[in-house]
């Protein structure tokens, strides 16, 4: 469904140039939830923003359903973008618009008939569980409710591809779980293909089918979620794993088997406590 080949992106700033994406290639099947995990600054957001050309890649190809979107411009790019929904970490809602009006926005831009817009908004409000909040403004909503509006808005144009950039990073663990469950239900029911960016291993574990690990602009490993985390090859993957074991031990001091066995049924590696977290923090910036 999505094929990315030899993608490169360099930022040129007064301080010099920075290669944010270095020859990245991957493929995502239709209906798949594909995760990209990496620490802060790895290039995840740049990568996902290239997929809908919010960011212009320097070179490489991005095929969506067989069409190379790096070759599109003007009206054909706008048409292609309608089929790509995006969900952001900080929701990016219009504060002066109600929930209803936030969800209807992309459909207004696309000049859908008023009756069709109303029909879709009503349905989306049900899907995301916000029927009673239709007339509320974003300021009157919790973080989780705001993200539900962001999800409904991203689905409004019935996308074939959903890009999700750290959708739950601003949310507490309980809300995170309910948002991930919602995204999983949507994927199962609509068959929408999902590319999901995160720095949280739990997110990958909960809903991704496959995962790629990103480090300094490169995908350093890729595969089924279980495979990658059972046999971590890169330093970054090992750090994620150790971080999760550490977090799990912190949460559950009674259990010596910790989270990794619960998560994957795998053998657990050594946990070096504070030293490890120091290392993780250094990577995370
Ligand atoms: N618009 C920009 N101009 C210059 N540098 C940027 C820009 N956006 C991102 N970068 C740099 O590119 C690298 C990757 O950033 P980003 O894609 O945001 O990483 P991540 O989402 O994994 O945290 C970082 O070093 C960041 O500072
Ligand atoms: Mg980012």
From TrEMBL:
Entry keyword annotation includes Acyltransferase: no
ABC transporter domain span: 2-241
One Gene Ontology CC term in the entry: plasma membrane
Pfam families: ABC_tran
KW Glycoprotein (keyword) present: no
Coiled-coil residue spans: none
InterPro entries membership: AAA+_ATPase (IPR003593), ABC_ATPase_HisP-typ (IPR030679), ABC_transporter-like_ATP-bd (IPR003439), ABC_transporter-like_CS (IPR017871), MetN_ABC (IPR041701), MetN_ABC_transporter-like (IPR050086), P-loop_NTPase (IPR027417)
Keywords (A to Z) from UniProt: Amino-acid transport, ATP-binding, Cell membrane, Membrane, Nucleotide-binding, Translocase, Transport
Molecular function via GO: ABC-type amino acid transporter activity; ATP binding; ATP hydrolysis activity
Protein family according to the UniProt entry: Belongs to the ABC transporter superfamily.
Name of the molecule in the record: ATP-binding cassette domain-containing protein
Organism: Heliobacterium mobile
């Amino acid at each position: 469904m999505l094929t990315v080949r030899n993608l490169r992106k360099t930022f040129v700033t007064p301080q010099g140039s920075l290669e944010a994406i270095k020859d990245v290639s991957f493929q995502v099947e239709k209906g798949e939830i594909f995760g990209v995990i990496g620490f802060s600054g790895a290039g995840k957001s740049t990568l996902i923003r290239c997929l809908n050309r919010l960011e212009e890649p320097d070179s490489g190809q991005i095929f969506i359903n067989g069409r190379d979107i790096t070759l599109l411009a003007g009206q054909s790019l706008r048409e292609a973008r309608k089929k790509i929904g995006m969900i952001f970490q900080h929701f990016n809602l219009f504060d002066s618009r109600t929930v209803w009006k936030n969800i209807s926005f992309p459909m207004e831009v696309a000049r859908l008939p008023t009756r069709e817009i109303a029909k879709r908004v009503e349905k989306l409000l049900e899907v995301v569980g916000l029927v009673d909040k239709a007339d509320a403004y974003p300021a009157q909503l919790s973080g989780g409710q705001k993200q539900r509006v962001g999800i409904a808005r991203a689905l409004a144009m019935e996308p074939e591809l959903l890009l999700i950039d750290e959708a739950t990073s601003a949310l507490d663990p309980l809300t995170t779980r309910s948002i991930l469950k919602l995204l999983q239900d949507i994927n199962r029911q609509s068959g929408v293909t999902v590319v999901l960016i995160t720095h949280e291993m739990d997110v990958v574990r909960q809903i991704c089918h496959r995962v790629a690990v990103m480090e300094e602009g490169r995908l350093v490993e890729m595969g089924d979620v279980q495979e990658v985390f059972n046999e971590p090859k890169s330093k970054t993957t090992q750090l994620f794993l150790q971080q999760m074991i550490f977090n799990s031990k912190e949460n559950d001091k009674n259990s010596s088997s910790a989270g990794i066995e619960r998560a994957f049924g795998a053998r657990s590696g050594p946990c070096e406590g504070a030293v490890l977290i120091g290392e993780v923090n250094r990577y995370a910036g």
